[in-house]
Amino acid sequence: MRCCTELPKTFAKISNAVMTSPQIDISVVVPVYNEEENVPLLHQAIRNVLDKLKRPYEILFVDDGSSDGTFESLLQVHRGHPKTRIIKLRRNFGQSAAMAAGFRAAHGDVIISMDGDLQNDPGDIPRLVEKLSQGYDVVSGWRKDRKDKFLVRKVPSKIANWLICSVTGVKLHDTGCSLRAYRARVIKRIRLYGELHRFIPALTRLEGARITEMVVRHHARKYGSSKYNLTRTFKVLMDLTTLNLLLKHFSNPLRFFTLMGAVWIGIGSVSVLLLIFDSSIIYSELNILISVILLFLILGFQFFFFGLLAALVVATGQRKNIYLSETFERLGKS
């Protein structure tokens, strides 16, 4: 596999650089990981659809540290189509980081995200764009007739979907579908990490986004293997806990931590009063009880401290890149 230093001179490598954005209407962001056989077919299918729209567009593939010939395939499709851009992550950071890289680099006013395994249908892109133009900020795909294995994919997905909808309050039939359309001004404000790409509609709700859903086509995988495994379910549950905290206490986390601290300090204070007025406590138990009371009080003050730290983080509005990347573009005008 050709290394980055051996790229042809027709490509420019830019790391963490601010680039002048051309006038683009639609950006299609496709994270890929070990999809060597799917890349050429998917690229051609997307290109055929976008050419018919007769609007300025770009196709942005994000190689999430593939270990096969995916990057070489991406370079091949780029050589014949300058509207295709490539971002190569230096290792496998996960789908959320890959999407974040693509969203950050996209130039379009409308951003479409989709999987790189040919299961999403590029033919649905015009319908998503049309639906978005009706006044929505996010249009999420619904794989109503999903072509996946029942026990391995469908059942865990239904459980995760129910949990996500219950916690976030965003009622969608399919929270795991990657085929979505976004207004750039909304999606570029979202910070993704972990498995948060599943929760993008809920995260955009924090920005006041108008969200809708539409049925999209879904195809069985022909080439390559699925990257899904049951360990991702546990990651989703952990991120769901974080998301629940964000949705309820994003603007003022100090309230949540103050409440938790007050509960523990209250328990400790009541225990102190019982210790003072309960004469039946024998001396041998006193040290244990004092240790437990001190633990309650310390926990309470720690929660107050955590709340202050969380409030400082929100106030400063820290925004950091959670990936390292290299962007490859054709030099000169396309």
Describe, in short, the structure shown:
By secondary structure, the chain is α/β, with parallel strands linked by helices. It contains 10 helices and 9 strands.
Detail the topology: elements first, then pairings.
Layout: E1 11-14, E2 26-32, H1 38-53, E3 57-63, H2 70-79, E4 84-89, H3 95-105, E5 110-113, H4 125-132, E6 138-142, H5 150-168, E7 180-183, H6 184-187, H7 200-205, E8 211-215, H8 231-249, H9 253-277, H10 283-316, E9 325-330
Parallel strand pairs: 2-3, 2-5, 3-4, 6-8
Antiparallel strand pairs: 1-9, 4-9, 5-7, 6-7
Helix pairs in contact: 5-8, 8-9, 9-10
What does this structure look like?
The protein is α/β, with parallel strands linked by helices and 334 residues long. The protein folds into 2 domains: 256 residues, Alpha-Beta Complex (Spore Coat Polysaccharide Biosynthesis Protein SpsA, Chain A), CATH 3.90.550.10; 65 residues. The chain is built from 10 helices and 9 strands. Helix 8 packs across helix 9. The longest helix has 34 residues.
